[in-house]
Write a structure and sequence with these properties.
This protein is an all-alpha fold. It has three domains: 136 residues, Orthogonal Bundle (Helix Hairpins), CATH 1.10.287; 73 residues, Helix Hairpins; 49 residues. 75% of the residues lie in helices and 0% in strands. It is built from 13 helices and no strands.
Length: 281
């Protein structure tokens, strides 16, 4: 295939994409129409959609780890749907509109890559990251915040879900060398925190119990980050696995499920575990 043929195919694809995007814009406006729109969509706000944005982000990340191209494509669409909804809500609230969102990202792309858009120049990966970081910092309204890593992080995570905030903390501080070198180090820390929780429980100090539990959770999230595991997706799979096993327990116990002793449940749990293991092998 010639260069011209490839360029023509790309142009046709781009034109088709623009037409699809126009239809998407129209569909979003129909969903949010004050008279004929979806009752549920009409009452949503930026804040009410946060749980769905978190869920879609987790599912997209999970699809990446699973290297499932079809799922990646589908989940990207779900994320785009969230962007479109927030843009329409911004328009309804007279805050901003979709065009502002697109213009802002285009401006960032051009401003932060001068070696591409201002002057064609090949630069190294390290140089490109340095340029990007310097320009980003110069764009800040309060550049003095950058002088304090902890203050900057506090501002960034204050409205984020705690697990997302932890991940952001971990990723930022490890850029400065504050990072784990092995899983063994993390397990040692985890064991230390578990022992401290045990001591807090013995002392019956509610504040200490809560603090030590938080330390364990924080350490586990460090482990998931180190292993490149999405904790939300991992927990979703465990929830499903638990309910699959509990379904087998229900089948075995029948109407007598409320009469089972803890020992009975342990026995049934092992039966369910082995049954699913054979099924999946």
């Amino acid at each position: 295939m010639s260069s011209n043929d490839r360029n023509n195919l790309q142009k046709n694809s781009d034109l088709e994409t623009l037409e699809s995007f126009k239809i998407l814009i129209s569909n979003i406006k129909s969903l949010k129409d004050k008279t004929w729109g979806c009752p549920w969509q009409k009452i949503q706000s930026h804040k009410s959609l946060i749980p769905f944005l978190n869920e879609e982000s987790s599912e997209f990340i999970d699809a990446i780890y699973e290297k499932n191209a079809d799922n990646i494509c589908e989940e990207l669409g779900d994320l785009l749907f969230q962007v479109m909804l927030h843009s329409e809500i911004g328009y309804e609230n007279k805050e901003f509109e979709l065009n502002d969102v697109i213009k802002n990202i285009n401006k960032k792309i051009v401003n932060r890559h001068p070696y591409i858009f201002n002057k064609k120049e090949k630069v190294s990966l390290e140089k490109s990251q340095q340029i990007w970081g310097n320009i980003k910092n110069s764009e800040k309204k309060e550049p003095h915040i950058e002088s304090s890593i902890s203050k900057n992080l506090n501002l960034k995570i204050k409205n984020l879900p705690p697990t997302v905030g932890t991940d952001k903390i971990i990723n930022v501080v490890k850029e400065y060398g504050f990072k784990w070198e092995s899983t063994d180090q993390i397990f040692e820390k985890l064991e230390e925190e578990i022992n401290e929780l045990k001591e807090a429980i013995k002392s019956k100090n509610d504040s200490d119990i809560k603090n030590e539990y938080g330390d364990i959770y924080f350490t586990l999230l460090n482990l998931s980050n180190f292993l490149k595991i999405n904790p939300e997706s991992a927990l979703q799979k465990t929830n499903k696995k638990f309910l699959d096993r509990f379904s087998i327990i229900e089948h075995h116990a029948g109407d007598n499920i409320k009469k089972q002793t803890p020992k009975d449940f342990q026995r049934l749990w092992q039966i369910a575990k082995q049954k699913l293991k054979r099924k999946n092998s």
